[in-house]
Amino acid sequence: MIIGSLKQIGRFSLETLSSMGRALRLLSFALIRRPDYRNIPLVIRQTYQLGVLSILIIVCSGFAIGAVLALQGYTQLVRVGSESALGLGVALVLVMEIGPVVSALLFAGRAGSAVTAEIGLMKATEQLASMEMMGVDPVRRIIAPRFWGGFVVLPLLALMFSVVGIWAGSLVAVDWLGVYSGSFWSVMEQGVDFFDHVMKGITKSIVFGFVVIWISVYQGYDSLPTSEGISTATTNTVVFSSVWILVLDFFLTLMMFEL
Amino acid sequence: MTRNSIVFDNVSYSFGKKEIFKKLSFEVPAGQTVGIMGPSGTGKTTLLRLMGGQIQPNNGTILVEGKDLKKIKRNELFELRKCLGMLFQSGALFSDLTVFENVAFPLKEHTSLSGEMIRYVVLIKLNSVGLRGAAHLLPRELSGGMQRRVALARAMALDPKLIMYDEPFTGLDPIALGVISNLIKDVGSVYECTNVIVSHDIEETARISDLLYVLSEGEIIGQGSPQALRNDDSPRLKQFLNGLPDGPVPFHYPAPEYMDSLIGGKNTKRIIIKRND
Fold first, then answer.
1. CA-to-CA distance for A49 and A115, rounded, in angstroms?
2. What ipTM does this complex have?
3. For residue B185, which of B12, B35, B22, B9 has the smallest C-alpha distance?
4. Do residues A34 and A134 make contact, with C-beta atoms less than 8 angstroms apart?
5. Which burial class, exposed, middle or buried, applies to A37 when counting CB atoms under 10 A from its CB (0-12, 13-18, 19+)?
6. Which residues of A touch B (CB under 8 A)?
7. Interface touch A135/B82, C-beta < 8 Å
């Protein structure tokens, strides 16, 4: 029984190490074999597929979260007469924390899973193999454009999320709850520093974008060429991406505040 | 001296614990149409994957157009593949591209031809497989046989030196079968292209091949011209060519005794079916 358990642990460790090795190999290929000038349209197409088509979900979620933050913040701050700081609170929470994290989670669910399923299906139907046999490198033609497209769009989506969230916050706070608009915007302007706050949020979303799109392309490329294999890979993309986003968020925040 | 397009020298290949090929050696002469036949599960598709460098043998040497597939670098392998064509068993068409775009794909990737010239070439290739009128359709709008004909047009798009066909005659109606087999033969003779056909269709493959190899249990059990094979007295070869169930070539996948499987004998793994599965 003990030997059996040890064997299972050993097998699991070897499989995990081997999977990590394959993921690193694919990443290095995607970085080395960047799309050349002929493949720029492919990157633009992926930017559209992964970014533009995600805008609706990002805008709706950003609006809802910004509005909720303003409502929640107002009910607490009004008790101590500090509702003028509401704009600052909403902006800091969105720009530094919720914007990058929630947009990355949404991106993993909408775009990451789509990338995994698409690549997995191409593998299962031998489209990647046929491309290889035509002398066309699937890493350069399929993987790299999705990798670079996804990597570029997430920081932009996160910024959009924060901007829409702040706007929704102002609608709730200023136009609905009657917070003085001058104090709402001026306190925010004084308190939010571009390098100290906005850049930290952008840095987070750059890291999240890199990790989510890496997981997505790897899960698709390494999936078993069966319907169950593609289903498992798609689930793995969402689960692994979500966990990594939250874990990395903790460590990035720790580093940024130099605690 | 005859130049060889493909040389297999003592090639062994295993998948997991199963040995697929045992020290396999054979040659495919340049410019000839070579048929490779054998029972199901004997590794014919695996053989094509070895020829295309998609998998590597455990032992032995494979030379394709003079290049040792084990020694060449990845970029050299991709360069070599530009002069190879392969028809996959499933067709493997790009599902998001139309029939026209599928055939145009290798031309766009590997040539500097103008758009108008690519259009001419694609229409010529599609016309040769009888699907010029389907150029605007997506692969999902075609039948399986038609998809394979498009895949054939795509494999021939660059007029490669060597074309490998994995079951090219499957799913074709009698008219398409005749046209496609003649097309394969003509491509070989007109463009001096080497054809390697992996197929179960003994009659059709023998009709257009200059040389046949018959594989069974990881080794070659017969080779020669179609006529020479028909005259061969080897019992294994006779059984395969005449489609007989009993003989030295096993029909069954390796398994314990039939009775043991049914009643769950000592060395058998009893399969239990739960009704709610």
1. 10
2. 0.82
3. B35
4. no
5. exposed
6. 121, 125-127, 129-130, 132-137
7. yes
Chain B closest CA to A148's CA: distance in Å? 21
Q: What is the percentage of chain A residues whose pLDDT exceeds 70?
A: 99
pTM of the model: 0.85
Instruction: Please identify among residues 88-117 of chain B the ones whose CB lies closer than 8 Å to any CB of chain A.
Output: 88, 90, 92-95, 105-106, 109-110
The total of other beta-carbon atoms located within 10 Å of residue B236's CB is 16
Give the burial class of A194: count Cβ atoms within 10 A of its Cβ; 0-12 exposed, 13-18 middle, 19 or more buried: exposed
Summarised one tens digit per residue, pLDDT across range A20-53 is 999 999 888 888 877 777 778 889 999 999 999 9
Handedness of CA A109, A112, A117, A120 (dihedral sign): negative
Q: Which 175-204 residues of chain B touch chain A by CB within 8 A?
A: none
Q: What is the pLDDT of residues B150-192, one digit of tens each?
A: 998 999 899 888 999 998 888 778 887 888 888 888 887 777 8
For residues B11 and B13, give the distance between their C-alpha atoms in angstroms, rounded to a whole number. 7
Contact B15, B177 (CB under 8 A): no
* CB proximity B60 to A under 8 Å: no
pLDDT, position B225: 87
Strands (E), chain B: 4-15, 18-29, 33-37, 59-64, 67-68, 84-87, 162-166, 194-198, 211-216, 219-224
User: CB of B160 within 8 Å of any CB in chain A?
Assistant: no
Phi, psi of B32 (to 5 degrees): -105, 160
Q: Which residues of chain B have pLDDT under 70?
A: 1-2, 246, 251, 265-271, 276-277
| Inter-residue contact B146 to B131 (CB < 8 Å) | yes
- HSE-up of residue B271 (Cα within 13 Å, Cβ side): 5
Task: Answer yes or no: are the C-beta atoms of A218 and A21 closer than 8 Å.
Answer: no
CA B92, CA A129: separation in Å to the nearest integer? 8
Q: Tokens 């999705």 label which residue?
A: A146
Assign residue B60 a region: left if phi > 0, alpha if psi is -120 to 50, beta otherwise?
A: left
Q: How many CB pairs under 8 A join A and B?
A: 51
